[in-house]
Amino acid sequence: MCTSYSVVFRFSPDSLTWLVSREGIVLSRFCRKRDAVREAARLARGSGGEGPTVVTVERMDGTVQCVRRYGRTAVLPGDERAREDGDSVTG
Fold this sequence. Notes:
By secondary structure, this protein is α+β, with helices and mostly antiparallel strands. It contains one helix and six strands; from the N terminus they run βββαβββ. Strands 3-2-1-4-5-6 form a six-stranded mixed sheet, covered by helices on one side. Strand 2 and strand 3 (about 25-30) form a beta hairpin. The chain is elongated and about 40 Å long. The mean pLDDT is about 80.
C-alpha cells in the first residue's frame, strides 16, 4: 500500500497558505512553500514500515511541480533514477 502526502496552495480571506495533507486530511499549514515541502518530506520519511510513500508538490496554479517517492520502490524498466531503497524525484 502506498501512502500519499500532498503540498497544495490555498487562498483564504486572511492569508495565502500552503497545506500539507495526507489522503485528503490537512495535517499542517505554512506561509512558505519550502516549509510545507520540508514537512511533507519529513512525514514521508517517517512513515517507515508502511511501504512506499509519495509526496506530490503542486504549484500555485494547481499543476504538479514534482512527485517525490520515499521508502522501498520498485525499479521500473528504463528508470535509472529510481533506486531500490531511497528517495527518487520525478517532475
